[in-house]
Amino acid sequence: MRRLRACLGAAAAVSLAAVGTTALVAGNASGATTALSNRWYAAAPYLMPLDNDPPDAGAIMDATGLKAFQLAFILAPDGGGCSPTWGGTAAVSSDTAVQSVVNTIRAKGGDVSVSIGGYGGTKLGQACSDPASTAAAYQQVITKYGLHAIDFDLEEPEYENTAAIRNEIGAAKILQQNNPGLYVSVTTAGTADGTGWFGKQMLLEAKSQGFTPNNFSIMPFDGGFNGAASQTSALTNFNAILQSTFGWDQATAYAHEGFSGMNGRSDTGEYFSQADFQTVLDYATSHDMDRFTFWSLNRDRQCTPADNGGRTSGTCSSVAQNAWDFAKYSVKFAGVTPPTGTPTPTPPNTACKTAWSSTAVYTAGNEVSYDKHNWKAKWWTQNEAPGASEWGPWQDEGAC
Description:
Layout: H1 38-43, E1 46-47, H2 57-64, E2 68-75, E3 85-86, E4 90-91, H3 97-107, E5 111-117, H4 124-127, H5 131-145, E6 149-153, H6 162-178, E7 183-189, H7 197-209, E8 215-219, H8 228-246, H9 250-255, E9 257-262, E10 264-265, E11 271-272, H10 274-286, E12 291-295, H11 327-333, E13 361-362, E14 367-370, E15 373-377, E16 381-382, E17 394-399
Parallel strand pairs: 1-2, 2-5, 5-6, 6-7, 7-8, 8-9, 9-12
Antiparallel strand pairs: 2-3, 3-4, 10-11, 13-16, 14-15, 15-17
């Protein structure tokens, strides 16, 4: 789940790339030499490659025709420092597990973007001293995986920190300059009015630095939303914010606007069905929006709310569906017809971990079971029961 889920010369603003054009071509250690069209990076759904019972990316590609994945999340180390890690615990420099996932996807003709930030953990914009050092940390990720696309997921609590957002936006601008053709998306919180005060401040920071990504995307969920109509209304309002902030006309604003949804049950108990996704997809394509994505492929499998004790799961959607139903809307946005047929669902891992103990000390990454759910520690904790607080130290990994 999203919430249970981190000075060089001036850069030229990036123009919206036409559908079908390719981003930068770069030889690198990962073996990537060609890029997909920007439309594919704009359609890439989020995938946690190391957490939340990661599904087989190759199987999703075979079942849906999907080619691009948004891998999440790059954070600062839990122990401190300005170097990139997966989830705060797995150093990018020594990674082989995510690299294996990337290699599998590329071997089947696909590619990945990498998302930095998210809701939990310490972000590099918070840990690094300035935009240049922040950019240097992210450049390690780009170089390691030979990236053609990157996503800045700037949301609570980081986007309430003006210095951190200055570092993130400045880093994005530096990366854009130093990696010609790099597809850059910026994802932030959505509200009924489009985005909130901190989201608007982030846009103003981008304007002040002269930074224009391929798109600014909002996440219209977890804010009292009720189906597709409330989401398309938020997208309309966000378009007006982009117009007023950057002086764009309506069409230009839509060409730099994106949608990032949540499939099934949201963190706050909202529900978004396949029909809702279709409605928003129709809105996005009819308005020539630049991006349509969702959180997450780990959740694009069926379970019922009862299976999760009424909680939102990181490994299934809590709505009736076939496996990878929501991924097919990303494929449609990319302009490809999904394969026909119903794939066999990949069931989430249901084995229970060792039971939680009130006397034990847990550190980030430790896993336990409690109340018929598996949980993963986000930071050091002792005698804090999993699920006792929505914002507590435990990440719900689903029923067991």
